Amino acid sequence: MRYQSMDDLKKSVAGIVETDGKVRVANPEKLRGQAIDRLVFNGVFHENGEIRQAARDLVRLSGNALGIHSASILPLYEARGRRECGGFTVPAINIRGLTYDTARAAFRAALRNRVGAVIFEIARSEIGYTYQRPAEYAHAVMAAAIKEGFTGPLFIQGDHFQASAKNFAKNRQAEVQALKDLIKEAIEAEFFNIDIDSSTLVDLSKPTVRAQQQDNCEVAAELTAFLRPLEPKGVSISVGGEIGEVGGKNSTVEELEAFMEGYREELDKKSKGAKGISKISVQTGTTHGGVPLPDGTIARVKLDFDTLAKLSQVSREKYGLAGAVQHGASTLPEEAFDHFPRRECAEIHLATGFQNMLYDDPGFPQEVKKEIYDHLRKECAAERKEGETDEQFIYKTRKKGFGPLKEKFWSLPEEFRKEIGRKLEDRFEFLFKKLNVVNTVSLVREKVPLDGGERRVA
């Protein structure tokens, strides 16, 4: 499947994609066959940087030619802040492994249900342990959109671009610069939605709520001011903020107000008149990935929907935001999901549940699973806590198998990949219906107009 040379790459798309001057897709049907499969694989795995980049460029420009454009969801969220629309919760899907196949499943479900309001995202931590830099992730998602015939705005998001409290305490400037470097890299990869998470810097030992939130306000404002000049022409990036670290204590209206007032003051100091955040992530009782019990099953979560609804309401009515964002939700019970649109939650982040479907599927080749788990027991041994069962240890660490064994996942038997793809598609359809984003294509296209032209990041 690997190209032998640049000439081999060019021959593989001859008569399919014309590259003289502006890229044009001469044969979309053939592109959606083996051609796109080969392009996406080489854009991820080819050892030659020139060939890898050429494959990525072809995928991006072919997608643009077919009417697929990376976009900011900000205009939709601003409309929601003005209460011109509502009653739905946008799913933000984190894909840690088998990225192309998983994104394909999401696009199939989206197309069948006319879903336009859906986000594909990857967190700072996931970029690290899944070995997926922003450009690679965007490449795989765009290729999946081409493969399935999706068109229109494509929302790709940097999730939890999170400050490390430990590194921040050691060297504030270096940690903030690391986040700026990541934001710049993500924007260059056409991530036009960025969630800044400096909630890790909240210090509950301080005497007032405003003082507790001060570092959070300052860093979120500094990063917002930093990214605005990096926006390509015609794009205003949707930026998210966060007031409560997921897994910590539940957020309050007082914390929301303290953060928003402090953030706006700091942003005005750093870049007067700059556009601020469009949504706010809060804590309502969830934990990323869920809490594994000794047998490896997940503890049932008590989520405070009243707090979520109140925070969403205040953020819209007082600050014009789209609403609150719920993290750590993919392992919630099925009956929980239709509560989110009813409580006007703006966005919900979903990750571990899809990972669990993959690992726990009875068709997952046992020899591959054994290789992954043996790798984790060796390489992540220092993370094992005293008294922890092997099931708990594996559940918490198996997300770290996606990076070192990435090509193993991409090369799983085709029959299994098709079957897990079908199951993921059903799951996405269930979530789209529960979150009430079915039939949002026309709303998205009305609020997020695209010029249809080629857009490059300067």
How does this structure look, described?
With 458 residues, this protein is of the alpha/beta class. It folds into 2 domains: 6-65, no CATH class; 69-357 and 412-447, Aldolase class I (TIM Barrel, Alpha-Beta Barrel). The protein is 50% helix and 11% strand. It is built from 19 helices and 11 strands. It has helices spanning 6-12, 28-45, 49-65, 74-81, 99-112, 124-129, 134-148, 165-170, 172-188, 209-227, 253-270, 305-319, 339-342, 352-360, 366-379, 390-397, 406-410, 414-434, 441-447, and strands at residues 17-18, 24-25, 68-71, 90-94, 119-123, 152-162, 193-197, 238-242, 279-282, 324-326, 347-350. The strands form 2 sheets. It has an 8-stranded parallel barrel, surrounded by 6 helices. A two-stranded antiparallel ribbon has the order 1-2. The protein is globular. Mean pLDDT is 93; it is low at 452-458.
Task: Provide a compact summary of the structure.
With 458 residues, this protein is of the alpha/beta class. The protein has helices spanning 6-12, 28-45, 49-65, 74-81, 99-112, 124-129, 134-148, 165-170, 172-188, 209-227, 253-270, 305-319, 339-342, 352-360, 366-379, 390-397, 406-410, 414-434, 441-447; strands at residues 17-18, 24-25, 68-71, 90-94, 119-123, 152-162, 193-197, 238-242, 279-282, 324-326, 347-350. It folds into 2 domains: 6-65, no CATH class; 69-357 and 412-447, Aldolase class I (TIM Barrel).
Secondary-structure element sequence?
A: HEEHHEHEHEHHEHHEHEHEHEHEHHHHHH
Largest sheet: 8 strands, parallel, barrel
CATH topology of the largest domain: TIM Barrel
**Portion in beta strands:** 5-15%
Question: Which descriptor suits the 3D outline?
Answer: globular
The tally of beta strands, per DSSP, is 11
Work out the helix count: 19
Mean pLDDT: 93
CATH class of the largest domain: Alpha Beta
Instruction: Work out the helicity level.
Output: 40-55%
Distance between the termini: 32 Å
What count of domains describes the coordinates? 2
